[in-house]
Design goal:
Belongs to the 2-oxoacid dehydrogenase family. With 402 residues, the protein is α+β, with helices and mostly antiparallel strands. 26% of the residues lie in helices and 25% in strands.
């Protein structure tokens, strides 16, 4: 008999919730075949089978909270699922024919609960999702893939409006337990508001120079580096440049000490079906445009597929959040503690602006810098945002370190 226990979950993570069991007692399992998913407050962890055999017992059911090294299940090593357990033979009965609507499905497959919930939360018809699990079982990753590659929608006849329901409104409500990730997001954001003396300063940037430079070199950039040239590498470079001049924006408070960091681990906020995550690009200040774009693309894809590891979301020193991809025109981003600064990007809109005493149409973007006023003074915050604006409006300054 082999025990299956909760693996090490990562730094500062001591417990998890059993989200989904892919196998049931009596099922045969192979080495490294996924047994269950554990949901922590940061990532989802898959637990593989350490041996081949038969899953004999599940100790921690779905929804239970378990600690590190807690017993999850036990496996009978080397056994097969073909031999039924010994016991009295059932009394033979003549089967009663069933109506077509009562017939059992062709397989005994059952979709993973995490896949069912993810599909329901995002209005995905799980019946149209191809399952990769045993007997065609739809897994969470299958739903994520379907969301990233939506199928064309076939128009259907409109439904007749239903009559208003009478009675208590509770009959029309649905109560769903928050995921550990969502609970952590809620707790950390509120802690940030309660702890930091948070303030936001705003500016706007003319994106003409960056857009012209990108349009001129994007095909050559893609051909040489194998990755598209986007706007995020320009903003990352501009922020790294400004952080060198205003180091307190890249620092953090530890008790009565201020910890200044001589590196930039850039957090890039990314929205996923499960919630907001912030993968970290380490030593971003020493990376090229191509290296930054490759890192953003790779970590963004891993975030959407729920494949980020614990270490990939820890140790950030500054964060960039791009609400513009969702259409946000202006917002005040919330700090990602213990960091002291976060830059908010927004939609690019053509607006009338005055240039050399003439009214011209330019692609403009509002920028927002939220900062911890306990460590960053107003002068430093405004100067930081001005340096970012200057670098974006004249990208040559980045090459000349001006």
């Amino acid at each position: 008999m082999t025990e299956v226990r909760v693996p090490t979950l990562g730094e500062s993570v001591t417990e998890a919730t059993v989200a989904t069991w892919f196998k049931q007692p009596g099922d045969a399992v192979a080495v490294d075949e996924m047994l269950c998913e554990l949901e922590t407050d940061k990532v989802t962890v898959e637990v593989p089978s350490p041996v081949a055999g038969v899953l004999s017992e599940i100790v921690a059911a779905e929804g239970e909270t378990v600690g590190v090294d807690a017993l999850l299940a036990s496996i009978t090593e080397g056994a097969t699922a073909d031999a039924p357990a010994a016991g009295p033979a059932p009394t033979a009965e003549k089967p009663t024919p069933k109506k077509p609507s009562e017939q059992a499905p062709a397989t005994d497959s059952k979709n993973a609960p995490s896949a069912e919930k993810l599909a329901a939360d995002n209005n995905v018809d799980i019946a149209n999702v191809d399952g990769s699990g045993r007997d065609g079982r739809v897994m969470k990753g299958d739903v994520l893939s379907a969301m990233n590659n939506p199928q064309p929608v076939v128009a259907s006849a409109p439904k007749a409006p239903s009559a208003p329901r009478s009675g208590d409104d509770a009959d029309r409500e649905e109560r769903v337990k928050m995921t550990r990730l969502r609970q952590t997001i809620a707790r950390r954001l509120k802690e940030s508001q309660n702890t930091a003396a948070m303030l936001t300063t705003y500016n706007e940037v003319d994106m003409s120079a960056v857009m012209d430079l990108r349009n001129e070199y994007k095909e050559l950039f893609l051909k040489k580096h194998g990755v598209k040239l986007g706007f995020m590498s320009f903003f990352t470079k501009a922020c790294c440049h400004a952080l060198k001049e205003i180091p307190e924006v890249n620092a953090e408070i530890d008790g009565t000490d201020v910890v200044y960091k001589n590196y930039v681990n850039m957090g890039i906020a990314a929205g996923t079906p499960s919630g907001l995550v912030v993968p970290v690009i380490r030593d971003a200040d020493s990376l090229s445009f191509a290296e930054i774009e490759k890192a953003i693309a790779e970590k963004g894809a891993r975030a959407r597929d729920g494949k980020l590891g614990m270490d990939e979301m820890q140790g950030g020193s500054f964060t960039i959040s791009n609400g513009g991809v969702y259409g946000s025109l202006l917002s005040s981003p919330i700090l990602n503690p213990p960091q002291s600064g976060i830059l908010g990007m927004h939609s690019i809109q053509k607006r009338a602006v005055v240039v050399n005493d003439e009214i011209v149409i330019r692609p403009m973007m509002y920028l927002a810098l939220s900062y911890d006023h306990r460590i960053v003074d107003g002068k430093g915050a405004v100067t930081f945002l001005v340096r970012v604006k200057e670098a974006l409006e004249d990208p040559r300054r980045l090459l000349m370190d001006l």
